[in-house]
Amino acid sequence: MSLIPESAPDFEDAEPKTWWDFANCLGVEPDLFFPERGASTKEAKEVCRGCV
Predict the structure, then answer these.
(1) pLDDT tens-place string over residues 10-25
(2) Cα separation values, 15 from 5, 40, 46, 50, Å
(3) Annotated domain spans of the chain
């Protein structure tokens, strides 16, 4: 009798986490990083500052 169910996920096939899985910008509206000409980039830089 095995303690591991037969339907256990195969973690060998799971892709490893990458930097963008943990990035501060994950889920942030992309428009924040592409402001209109002359608009402030301060908010976008604040998001990025946590990663760099």
Answers:
(1) 666 677 788 888 899 9
(2) 22, 37, 29, 25
(3) 19-49
